[in-house]
Design a protein that fits this description.
Layout: H1 2-32, E1 37-53, E2 56-71, H2 89-117, E3 120-128, H3 133-136, E4 144-148, E5 151-152, H4 157-164, E6 171-178, E7 181-188, E8 190-192, E9 197-199, E10 202-209, H5 213-240, H6 251-264, H7 266-284, H8 292-305, H9 311-342
């Protein structure tokens, strides 16, 4: 029971960290650009605590499912020169995009910590079939795969991308690390009637590997790129109907997964926090009403037209988007609770 409670508190702390980073990006960039900020809130719903500093009210609200940085005059036309819509488009653009940028920077820092302290996994040759081309060319169990069909491999997750687009070439170009020695192979494939594919005759598994701090700094960029690539691919699949919507979850799923991670290892917590920070950044940049991406679309249109779309119309569109967004959150929450309590 105590571990469950501590895991729940830890999960809320991780979510709060992502929200503070995101809204803090908006806040500090807005302050730098000279905007008036009426409220900075963590969470939605009734206020649990509030205080005021300078002209901004800070608040913590009951439901930790998001937050907001309320700029003066958002979606309105008012005369205050410090109001959001009275500032130049590029200042508004920088302020809006700063939220996702802060999440990406946070994810980068978390990735460096995760990779340098806990490492990650790499693909390693597991079994080489006797009399297969791989066996005849000298591939051995334990060889670390560094390059596959011309693609550099630093993490095990990359193998899924490489294999998904594997060519029909009958020769496999493979580079491995064998006890510090780099070896290159050009292995001819043999036709396998069971799979109707040309295979080299070996399997691989994932094994942990440690990185130095400097290696982690460099590899963290690639690690984040792979996560973003996978997420964009999934979102694209939702549009064309190829992604599995049953994988979608709401805030309850996030809390459940992160709280369980605390009982497994702090390394997994760091990894999940980085992953969730990237997800928050990418989702917020989608060009949908009420999201940062939707607001960026209006700013870009204004910059092209040299005049804004009427603020009342923009405000109405964002309000509808917010209503639909909350509806989706309620639906996902219901789905999460049904899965947890009823297995549905």
């Amino acid at each position: 029971m105590i571990s469950t409670i501590l895991g729940f508190i830890g999960a809320i702390a991780v979510i709060a960290f992502m929200i503070i980073a995101h809204e803090g990006g908006h806040f500090f960039m807005g302050r730098a650009c000279g905007f008036a900020i009426d409220e900075f809130s963590i969470g939605f719903g009734p206020k649990l605590a509030k205080w005021k500093k300078n002209e901004t009210q800070f608040s913590i609200r009951l439901f930790p499912i998001g937050g907001f940085c309320l700029f003066r005059g958002e979606d309105k036309d008012i005369k205050d020169p410090k109001a959001f819509n009275n500032q130049k488009p590029y200042k508004r653009f920088l302020t809006i995009i700063a939220g996702a940028t802060a999440n990406l920077i946070s994810a980068l820092i978390l990735a460096v910590l995760f990779l340098s302290i806990y490492g990650d996994k790499v693909p390693v040759v597991y079994e080489v079939e006797e009399s297969s081309p791989a066996y005849e060319y000298g591939l051995k169990s334990g060889d670390i795969i560094k390059q596959y069909d011309g693609e550099n491999i630093d993490f095990a997750i990359e193998m899924s991308f490489v294999l998904a687009k594997e060519s029909d070439d009958t020769v496999l170009n493979l580079t491995v690390d064998r006890n510090g020695e780099i070896l290159n192979f050009d292995i001819p494939k043999e036709y396998n009637s069971d799979s109707d594919r040309y295979l080299a005759g070996f399997t691989f598994e994932q094994q942990p590997i440690n990185f130095t701090v400097f290696e982690s700094i460099g590899l963290s960029f690639k690690w984040l790129f792979l996560i973003i690539k996978e997420m964009v691919s999934y979102l694209g699949g939702l549009v064309v109907g190829t992604s599995n919507t049953s994988d979608m979850g709401g805030i309850v799923s996030v809390v459940d997964i992160v709280s369980q991670a605390f009982s497994i290892s702090f390394g997994l917590v760091l990894e999940l926090a980085a992953l969730l920070s990237v997800n928050l950044a990418v989702i917020n940049l989608l060009p949908l009403p009420a999201l940062d991406g939707g607001r960026l679309v209006f700013i870009i249109i204004e910059a092209i037209r040299k005049k804004p779309i009427p603020r009342e119309i923009e405000g109405t569109i964002h309000a509808i988007g917010m209503f639909l967004l909350f509806g989706l959150m309620i639906l996902l929450t219901y789905k999460d609770l049904a899965r947890i309590f009823f297995g549905g």
